[in-house]
Amino acid sequence: MTFLQLINRVLIRLRENEAVTPTDNDYVTLVGYLVNDAKKIVEAAWDWAALRTTLSVSAVVSDNSYTLTGSGFDYKFLDAYNDTQDTRLKLITKNEMNTLINLNTAATGAPEYFCLDGLDSSGDQNILVHPTPDGSYTLKFDIVQREAELSAASDTTVLPTHPIVMYAWAMAARERGETGGAAAQELFGIADRALGDAVSLEASKYQAELTWRAA
Known about the structure:
Elements: H1 3-13, H2 26-44, E1 52-59, E2 65-68, E3 76-82, E4 87-88, E5 90-91, H3 94-103, E6 108-109, E7 113-119, E8 125-130, E9 132-133, E10 137-144, H4 161-176, E11 178-179, E12 182-183, H5 184-203
Parallel strand pairs: 5-7, 6-9
Antiparallel strand pairs: 1-10, 2-8, 3-4, 3-10, 7-8, 11-12
């Protein structure tokens, strides 16, 4: 569903005229902001399959610093592995990495560990790996990658749209009191149920992730 369609779904529920663009007037622009706020709520509620992706890092000899290009600052880490060696990478703290790099004898080889090392100028995640690569390795990182805000009329989201519309409607109703006889509190309850249904449906496809297993 496009950004404009989402806005219009909300406007209809507010008993307003549909918009032609996301910036038709000040109120339509406000609804657009509320749609993006609602999208963030839905986005953060679950590790949606549509947002899951794998980023690849090409590690080279003598370089232990890399960037997860495209991760953004608000990604969620799921898994990491050395695809060349068919081994997992272990996430450790920066303090642990400092001990390995600076307080122990320098080591080279296939990367086994990584730590987070701040963000680059684009807001993507920097990492350090250890041991320092002694050759070429492909490192892969499974993450939940957040979407950019919707802005153009044709921008789309891969997230469940019904709870987005319901939350945006509830926020708009709260902003002006109530709409169509429905109080904002009631509408937020409807939005919560819509989101819960969407999460439940998605979770049913990933039941193994919800089962705790001893290490």
